[in-house]
TrEMBL record, chains A, B:
Belongs to the formate--tetrahydrofolate ligase family. It comes from Alkalispirochaeta americana. GO terms for biological process: tetrahydrofolate interconversion. The lineage of its organism: Bacteria, Pseudomonadati, Spirochaetota, Spirochaetia, Spirochaetales. ATP binds at T65, P66, L67, G68, E69, G70, K71, T72. This is Formate--tetrahydrofolate ligase. The gene is fhs. It catalyses: (6S)-5,6,7,8-tetrahydrofolate + formate + ATP = (6R)-10-formyltetrahydrofolate + ADP + phosphate.
Amino acid sequence: MRLSDLEIAQAAQVEPIETIAARLGLASGEWLPWGRNIAKVDPAVARGERHPDSRYIDVTAITPTPLGEGKTTTTVGLTQGLGAIGRKGMCAIRQPSQGPTFGIKGGAAGGGYSQVLPMEEFNLHLTGDIHAITAAHNLIAAAIDNQMYHESRWSDAFFQKRGIEKVHIDPYEISWNRVVDLNDRSLRSVVTGLGALADGPLRQGGFDITVASELMAVLALARDLRDLRERIGRIVVALDRGGAPVTTEDLGVAGAATVLLRDALWPNLLQTLEGQPAFVHAGPFANIAHGNSSVMADRIALTQGGFLVTESGFGADIGMEKFFDIKCRVSGLMPDAVVLVATIRALKMHGGGPAVTPGRPLPQEYCQENLELLRSGLDNLRAHIRIAGLFGVPLVVAVNAFDTDTEGELALVRDAALQAGAADAVVTHHHARGGEGALALAEAVARAADAPRTTSPSPLYDLSLPLEEKLRTVATRVYGARDIELSPLARRQIARYEEEGYGTMPVCIAKTHLSLSHDPALKNAPENFIFPVRELRPSAGAGFVYALAGDIRTMPGLPSVPAFRGIDIDVETGRVQGLF
Amino acid sequence: MRLSDLEIAQAAQVEPIETIAARLGLASGEWLPWGRNIAKVDPAVARGERHPDSRYIDVTAITPTPLGEGKTTTTVGLTQGLGAIGRKGMCAIRQPSQGPTFGIKGGAAGGGYSQVLPMEEFNLHLTGDIHAITAAHNLIAAAIDNQMYHESRWSDAFFQKRGIEKVHIDPYEISWNRVVDLNDRSLRSVVTGLGALADGPLRQGGFDITVASELMAVLALARDLRDLRERIGRIVVALDRGGAPVTTEDLGVAGAATVLLRDALWPNLLQTLEGQPAFVHAGPFANIAHGNSSVMADRIALTQGGFLVTESGFGADIGMEKFFDIKCRVSGLMPDAVVLVATIRALKMHGGGPAVTPGRPLPQEYCQENLELLRSGLDNLRAHIRIAGLFGVPLVVAVNAFDTDTEGELALVRDAALQAGAADAVVTHHHARGGEGALALAEAVARAADAPRTTSPSPLYDLSLPLEEKLRTVATRVYGARDIELSPLARRQIARYEEEGYGTMPVCIAKTHLSLSHDPALKNAPENFIFPVRELRPSAGAGFVYALAGDIRTMPGLPSVPAFRGIDIDVETGRVQGLF
């Protein structure tokens, strides 16, 4: 009988968090216990130097099907595999939003025998970091409306008497929505401030899901508490009537928002199913934000020595590019190797296989050997290997094996990967067998990371390039576009943001993850396309300018039969049921 | 130099939570550490019997000024005083909302030398219980809109195929707002669901502050996890087109909402400034809900022996009445004594003194001896002593002393209290001097609670009375009204709710706390007034029918200079600044 992820997690023996913290290398004063076998680790630990015997690994993937190709399970499985070959393994992953958990997705703590424990806590509140972001984000939103409300009613003299100045927010230039950590389509676009005297200001606004908040990107990138405070203070929430940026500092709410995020800055320490330390900290979107877990967790882990395996969102074209160009620039840490997760399923899809749709049975092509389809899809794998090469980092291909994969198919992928320049290519069975199923992957990664460097990993572009050139560099060199096309709006915005001083920030491109291009229908390795940039926005607190190439949803909806209908609690044992 | 509450709290030596838990009597497996010197206590402890040497004390107050008369400081100070006289003291209080903390109020962890520690955690996220309620409440709200959205688009057959039935919610009969734990006037009344295809349903709604959620009242009243699950399932969120109640169970979301509140059911254990165990758990409104901390914390504490001091919201007419008629009925626990907090300031106001307004200097009458004004206001004190008598419980008057009170004034109040039937009446200085300042109060309370009972405390009315009679009983016997007057709407609602089976629930009257009557302008002890009941609503999950007598705000606003402007963080030490 095949057990569900939740059954495997609930049957597992969770070790005391003291044991995990000691295994990581922490002293007892360096962390706080926080509920059931979870700790929060003091950011002060990050002040130490990177340990000379540390290895830093980023896990990325080829262009996935809508089902995902097992990047998180590979991250956890590799960590367990490193343990199984006698190396010290640790991982650092993103905290998932609760919204999709109750919508369509179920849990997100890895899967099978490669999971992070405790699984219920991981998928629910954890230590409340996302709730803290919701609170801080909505406090800033309340500060905006409150400022407008009082300014519209009282005189300049009234404000001066109280030692504050009017801000004169342009009501049509507010760029700060409210947030909830939920899938709630009916909050996407709302009118607030209806009512009578004392209930204003009346205006149109909207809600995003909390993980899309700029505060989440800020939390993920903050190097320490001072950096967090400064980044929050730089966040631009609106323009004033003269067109000048209005920051949280201008509204006097930056300090209070930081106070609300004080504990959220402490990374959460959990464990893998096989007892390795597992950091779960921050979870920014991978389109309008950079899609990587926190700088703070990585800094802490790398002071302790051993292999730190982290994961970046979506494929190498998106999450990994942002890992190098945004996260590593901030942290000053560069990886020793990259793992590229591939599946036979996804490669067949790129080779022209029929559509893969969540909730529908997988078409026949994916359930039996089809070398033709697979061979046609290998260009996607080659493109991602080429992308990793741009950053000068050794790459190991991990073929995440499914029961239906044949030896011939697996061999074909391995050979293609090695020919394309991968340092190694191995099949991995961590989902079904845990660390024992990832021995070959762990050995390959250790070899690649331990090998003497011939190149030195680095970001793709120089920050001094103009914004347009940065966009062009990513689109042509990473995505494989022939050129970019800026909308007239994007062109005006670039001119303006460079004038305002945002020109030296890295770019964060929001595009579909289902294609190397901007068009989800273009599978495999499209060429000769023009990459369109519709609009840009500075995330001044996070420290990047994001560019929209397509429609990006920042508030999901619930399906007709939401996952919450199957979730309940055993009132005798307190155990959660139905969390997949 | 006088220290601020925050300075006193930050200078205090916080004891390890292990020490506090052991002092309470808990074994190490009965609680979990949860952050900085906070524990969550396993609800399983509540399965034990009430300890024979336990004493249960409720702290209430006379009708307050808008500044409040120090009920929480007295609760904490008395607990510390019990320690100072060698008795085992514990307290159980409500968790405050974060909204007012950033609005007008500053912290709410007691004050001066009678505080609960750690103070920053107390006033901010604590262990995330209120955030969990926000999440569960808004998940239910999303389930309502999602049901309407999909029902309006897909056929009956579509739903049947998926094993669920249409609910046919009447869009004009939705009684479930959304919530945020913030003061945000512009969310009081909103239109949601604007946009295009996939963004509905379009309707008018609103947000309340989280502590006004029925889920908060449910959490406060739940006897165990099973009871929590059942109460949540009974919550009525809307009516269907046939006028029948729609519950969370009908929407399939009751289980998931309970899962989100699983940890919130574990009471939070903190400590007083002098090291007594202090439970901080649940904080329902005292008007539309019952305004008392959790049944769970009280049950746990009373299994361990010693004095448990708890606090009920507003004056004896409101919070204490609901303590007996709602909370004690559910818990099956009856108090041994009640403490009535009075101040010279409030009594002078009742005697005809000028208005007391937050943020304005106190008028002269309150800063110097004025026996005349004080004497005129004593009727309010007498009325509250009479109210406690209705419940058959011994009462100790605690005169919360201010620097400006004179010996003559204090003696006048003590004498009046004793004449009116108080078991004792003492002056207390816990704010300035901690437990040492509350020795007399502790002695008096211990005497009253230890004395052999001549009466047996009981609720005011029998549940089998019709709703109208219950309302009349509370209004005439407690508030001193001549009679009640039901609006035509209220009359129709009573008939309907009795038909629907809510007739045997207790009533929970929402009225102003600034008068014994429904009219905040009627100070002291008004007589001969007719108490108007405008509207009723069942809180089917909490298990009471609430009645509105006046406008009750369930979403506060922010002032022109909100408290958040003064709140910041020391980026070197991580200490919070400006939290009063």
